Every structure is written in structure tokens, then in C-alpha cells.
Amino acid sequence: MTGPSGLPADDSLHITKRRLLEVGLATLLERGYNATGIQDLLVATNVPKGSFYHHFGSKEDFALQVIDRYVAELHVLLDQSLGELDRAPLDRVRLFFERQLALYASQGYLGSLIGILGQELAAVSTAFRRRIEAAFDGIARRLAEPLEEARRRGDMPSENDPLLAATLLIDCWEGAAMRSRLLRSPVPLEAALGAASRGVLT
């Protein structure tokens, strides 16, 4: 189950913290990190500054927790897609990207949060670089499992490395997500998915 911004609806979170994370995701997606001010978040959520710092140690801590929640949502999509065992393994992988496309559509084609923040912050912040690289690595390892199954079934060439193929899929998708953000259009994402179906996923 997800909240209004696509984040997992975690009932264990304090309602104020949950609201800040939801608004934070939408704001970071739209503006990026450097153009997002804490005061803007406080005004948007009607939360006093003291409450913000009760839940988050700093703006960096806040953004890292937004990333964690965003990545958790991606893992929910992975669970849903890869768990449909009545589908062929390559179809399950494709379903994950189709569900991401639907998520991006609901957000106005603003792209991938981890892609956006990776572009903006990886060169200047070790904490963000490590967190975002770990996120991509975790997703790739999840996708490598059905790709390995597909290779065993003969649906992929036997010489293909499943983890390398999964990483390539993510790299292509993230590039398409950036183009989609520029155009505010699903076309680059649909093209990437089509190319993957004709290439990596065969």
C-alpha cells in the first residue's frame, strides 16, 4: 500500500514525519536537492521547524531518508512484479519497468529520484553517492534472479551474465528517465523498454 506520493504507507511512522517525507519526495523530484529549502517544506506541510529537527538531524539526513523510502517503493514494485510466478521470467522483469513507467506517469514524468539526486550530488557528497549506488546495486541483484532463471530456461543466451544484463537495463532505463523528465513525456521510457525487449531481454 502506498501513500499519495507513491511512498510506502508505513503506519509505524509518525504522521508528521510521514507527511514531510511525502512532500519531500514531490519537492525533490521537481526541484532537486539544492533548490529545495527546509523553509519551503515547513510551509508546504504547516510543520514547525522544531518538529522537522525532531525527526531529521539535517537537510542531508532528511533527503537520505526520502531516498530510502523511495527505494523501498521500488522494492515493493519488484516484489509485486517478480512475484507473479505464472509469468515467464523475462515478462516479470518487463512488468517491473512497466510499473515504474506507471509510477512516473502519476508523478508527471519527473524522472527517477535516485537518478536526479545521483546526477546532482554524487560528485560532491560521499553519503549520497554510496546510498544511491547501493540502491542501484540492490535493484540490479533483484532483477538478476529472474534473468538467471531465463538463462537456464534458454530464454536468454547462455553466455549472458544476468547481473551485468540487469545493470545494463537499469543504466538504459535511468538515461531514458532523464530524457523523459526533459520532455515530460513517456516516449523515451517506452522506447527504452522496447529496445530492451528486442535486445537485453531476448
Describe the 3D structure:
The chain has helices at 15-31, 38-45, 49-55, 59-82, 89-106, 113-121, 126-153, 162-183, 187-198. With 202 residues, the chain is an all-alpha fold. Helix 7 crosses helix 8. The longest helix has 28 residues, at 126-153. 34% of the residues are buried. Residues 1-8 have low confidence and may be disordered.
Could you describe the largest sheet, including whether it forms a barrel?
Answer: none
- Rg to the nearest angstrom? 18 Å
State the fourth-level CATH superfamily of one domain: Tetracycline Repressor, domain 2
The average pLDDT value, as a whole number, equals 92
Helix percent reads: over 70%
The SSE order reads: HHHHHHHHH
- Determine and state the CATH class of one domain: Mainly Alpha
CATH topology of one domain: Tetracycline Repressor, domain 2
Q: Catalogue the unreliable spans.
A: 1-8
In percent, how much strand structure appears in the residues?
under 5%
**Count of DSSP H/I helices:** 9
Structural class: mainly alpha
* Outline type: elongated
Q: How many strand units?
A: 0
Termini, distance in Å? Answer: 32 Å
CATH architecture of one domain: Orthogonal Bundle
